[in-house]
C-alpha cells in the first residue's frame, strides 16, 4: 500500500472513528450535551425499546466501541459492523421521518458514518493500524465482515421492528373515540 493511501486511510479512520466514538460517549456519560446512559435509556424506552438498558448498551458499544475500533484500526470488521448496526437503528428509528438533512434531524449524519464503516469493513484499515501491527490482517476479509455486518443489520432490524407501537384494534379505536 502506498504511503499516500495508507496516510489517507489513517486520517479518515481517526477523524470518523473518533467522531462516532465521541457521539457514543455522550450516550454513556452526560458529556458535551449528551444524555448519558440514564437519559439515553429513558429516550429509548419512550421510543418503545424493551429492555431499554440492553438497547442503550448496544448503542454505546456500537458507537463508542465501534468508533474506537475504527480509529485504532483494531478488530476493524467487528468495529465497522458495530457502527453499521448502531447507524441502521438511528436512521430507521429516529431520523428517517425527518428526511435527509441533519439540520432537520434527518439521517444525513448517520448515513455518512454508516457509509464510512461499510467502506472500511470492505477494504480494511490500511497499513497504519493495530490490525497490521499485530498481524491481524487475516481478520480483514470481506466474508467475515459481511457476516458481522449482516448480523448487525439483523439485530438493528429486530430493534426497529420490536419497538414499534402495537397496532390498535378496530374495536379499541372505536371505544376510545366514544
Automatic annotation (TrEMBL):
The keyword Cell membrane applies. The chain crosses the membrane at residues 68-91, 111-130, 142-161. One of its GO terms (cellular component) is plasma membrane. Its main location: membrane. Keywords: Cell membrane, Membrane, Transmembrane, Transmembrane helix. It is found in: Cell membrane. It is a multi-pass membrane protein. It holds the Pfam family DoxX. It comes from the Bacteria. Belongs to the DoxX family. This is DoxX family protein. It comes from Ktedonosporobacter rubrisoli.
Amino acid at each position: 500500500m502506498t504511503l499516500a493511501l495508507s496516510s489517507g486511510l489513517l486520517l479518515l479512520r481517526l477523524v470518523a472513528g473518533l467522531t462516532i466514538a465521541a457521539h457514543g460517549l455522550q450516550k454513556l456519560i452526560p458529556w458535551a450535551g449528551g444524555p448519558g446512559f440514564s437519559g439515553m435509556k429513558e429516550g429509548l424506552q419512550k421510543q418503545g425499546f424493551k429492555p431499554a438498558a440492553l438497547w442503550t448498551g448496544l448503542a454505546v458499544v456500537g458507537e463508542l466501541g465501534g468508533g474506537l475500533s475504527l480509529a485504532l484500526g483494531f478488530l476493524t470488521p467487528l468495529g465497522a459492523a458495530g457502527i453499521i448496526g448502531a447507524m441502521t437503528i438511528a436512521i430507521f428509528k429516529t431520523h428517517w421521518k425527518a428526511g435527509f438533512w441533519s439540520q432537520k434531524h434527518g439521517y444525513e449524519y448517520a448515513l455518512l458514518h454508516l457509509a464510512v464503516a461499510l467502506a472500511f469493513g470492505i477494504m480494511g484499515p490500511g497499513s497504519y493500524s493495530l490490525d497490521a501491527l499485530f498481524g491481524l490482517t487475516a481478520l480483514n476479509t470481506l466474508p467475515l465482515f459481511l457476516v458481522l455486518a449482516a448480523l448487525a443489520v439483523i439485530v438493528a432490524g429486530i430493534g426497529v421492528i420490536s419497538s414499534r407501537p402495537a397496532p390498535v384494534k378496530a374495536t379499541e379505536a372505536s371505544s376510545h373515540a366514544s
